[in-house]
Amino acid sequence: MQHFSQPKLTNAPESPFQPYQLVCLEHSGTYLYAEVVQMADGKQVCWVRPLVLVRGTLEWSQDSTLVPASSLYDLRHCSDLLLPSALFRSALDTEVIPLLSHLSEVESSNLVNIALNTPESPQAQLHQLLKQVCLGHPELF
Asked: How many whole angstroms separate alpha carbon 45 and alpha carbon 105?
């Protein structure tokens, strides 16, 4: 006869985010919007999938559509990230969906074609933000 032990209950804090939740990392006027893939067990680390990077503030027209901004970067093809969950806040769908809609409009009209590994590429912009965040919050890394 086999005996199974009771699972141990811990006082670990509940994960601040759930899979598929939209989150935002704000740093010095730059906003990284991402989707949570998973929270690391026992650690306060988020596995996130980058979606959009916004530099500066966005403007909205009177009919609630996004005014095109040169500071919008499509990160949907960038690598996933593992970052401390303390860096993120919950993002509202109403923040992120208009950004993704705008990116889809730009993509379908072929208005933007940014070469990879240039100073203006989405990957370079993400790398620059992550470097700034690491330097600005060394206690989290």
From this structure: 33
Tens of pLDDT, residue by residue over 40-52, are: 877 889 999 999 9
Q: Are 122 and 114 in contact (CB under 8 A)?
A: yes
The model's confidence at residue 34, banded by pLDDT at 50, 70 and 90, is very high
Q: DSSP string of 31-99? A: EEEEEEEEEPTTS-EEEEEEEEEEES---B-TTSPBPP-TTEEE-TTSPPEEEEGGGEEE--HHHHHHH
Q: Round the CA-based radius of gyration of the chain to a whole number and report it.
A: 18
* pLDDT tens digits, 93-108: 888 888 888 788 766 6
